[in-house]
Fold each of these.
Amino acid sequence: MPLSTRYSGYDCFAWVYNKHWGDKFIPLVMPILEKFVLQYLPDGARILDLCCGAGQLAQVLVARGYRVTGIDSSEEMLHFARENAPSARFIPADARSFKLTGAQHAVLSTFDSLNHIMTLEDLLSVFRHVYAVLRKGGLFLFDLNMEAGYRVCWEDNYGIVEDDHACVVRMSYHPDERTACFDATIFRLQDGWQRSDVVLMQKCYSDAEVKSALEAAGFNDIRACTYDELWNPAELTVEAERAFFICRKP
C-alpha cells in the first residue's frame, strides 16, 4: 500500500489527544495485558505496539524492560510518541501493510485502534501482517468497541475548555451501516485563535467476524473476553461494550 494512503486522520488531532486521551486507557488495560500477555513473555521481549498513538503505552512497556517498536500512520502522533517514550523505536506505517525486521514476541493494539479499519478485508490484511511479524508462539492482543458500546457510549456530545484551547466533541453511531463517527472541532490559541475540524470514523465488527478473520490469517488459541466493573476479565456477552481478543501464532 503506498505511503500516501496511510491513515492520517489523527494528525491535526494529535496534540489534544496526547494531552487529554493518550494515557487515559493505560491503567485500565494493564491488568488485561498482565493476565493474558506480559506474564508469558521473557525478560527483554520484543513487543510491537500497533497503532501506538502518542506512545504512552510504549513508555510503560519500556520502563518494564521490554524492547518496544511502535507503528502509527500519523506522523504527528509519532512526534509525541518519541517525546513520551524516547527509548522505543517508532515507525510511520499503515497497519494494513506494514513490514518489520526482527520477530516479535507479542503484538498489542489498544484503545479501539483497530475499529478505525473500515472493512473486513482490510482488517484481515492487518491480521496477516501481524501474523508475519510474530515469532512462532507469539501472542496478539487487541481490543475493539462492540455494538453495545457504540449504542451506549457513542450518542454523546461534550466539550473541553482550557485557557489556551477548547475542544467540542460530537459522537454518533449508525446501526444500519455499523459505523460510528467522532467529530471534533478544536480551537487553539496560537498567534490568535486557530480552528481545526477532525472527523474520525470507526467500524463495528461482531465477535464472529473477528474470530473468523483471525483464523483466516492463521492464528489459533483464539479467545475473547470483556471486563467487569473492577476491570477484571469477564465472559464476553452481547451486553459487552468492549472486547479483548487474544490469540497465538502456532
Note: The mean pLDDT is 94.
Amino acid sequence: MAEWEKYCLSKEADIQKMFPNANLKNPHTFTDKLHWLKIHDSTLLKSFCSDKITLHDYCIEKLGKDICIPILKTYNSVNEINLNELPNSFVMKCNHGSAMNIIVEDKTKFNFHLAKQKLDKWLKEDYSVHSELHYKLIPHKILVEEYKANLGRSDLTDYKFFCFNGEPKFCQVITDRRAGEKISHYDLNWKYSPRYDWKQYSSDPTLEKPKHYEKMIEYAKLLAQEFKLVRVDFYEIDDSVYLGELTFVPANGKQIFKNPNTNLELGKLLRL
C-alpha cells in the first residue's frame, strides 16, 4: 500500500501538466478537489468499485443484494468469446475504463470481427493515463451483460447522484443520448436545479420524476458511505432500479458550469 501511495504522489506533476489551471496545493473549487483526490485518495477500494465485475460484490456487501445489470460471461481475451453461447441481444464491455461498450441489439446483424478488434484494443489500454489513477490496479477483462431496455424508448435515462462525504446532494439526469444528448440536474426533492448545469449541454427542466427516485437516494447513500466524493449511477428499467457504476472523478474534472459560482459552491461541500 505504501508503494501505491508513493506511485500516486509521483504523478502529481503529470496531473498538473494535464490540468495546468488546477490548484493542487490549496484546492478550493470542486474541480481542483477532484484532481487533488486523484493524487491523495486513489484507494484500493476505488479500484475495486471501478472494476465493473467486482462492483457486483461491493453492491452485495453494502445493499445485501446485487442490483447491477447481470453479467452473462467474462473473458480474459477476445479469443475466448463464443457467440453461440450468448443470447441474441447483449452488451459487451471492458471492465477497466469508460466508454468501452458495444451494444448488440440483434446478434444476426452484429459485426463480430470489428467488435473483436475494438475489444482487443481496449484490453491493451491503460485507462489510468487519463489521470484517473485508481484504474491502474484493475485487471483487464471483457464482460458480457444482459441487454436492458424500456419498451418504446430508444435509450435508457441515467440518474447520477453526486455524493459528498457520504451524502447525496443532487441528481444529474442524462437523456436523449442518441439524438441530442441533454444533461439536467435536479435536487433530492426533484426540483430542477439549473445552477449545476454544464455549458457543454442543453438541459430539460420538465423531466418526469422516476418512480423509484427515493429508493435510488437510499441506495446511493449506502453505496457512498466509504468515499469523500462519488457519483452513483442508476437506471430504472422494467419497474426496477439497476446500479450502473460508481464514478470517482466525474467527467475527469473537465466540466464547465453555466453558473460561475457553482464550482466554488460545490468545492465547499466537499471535505478533504
Note: The longest helix spans residues 112-123.
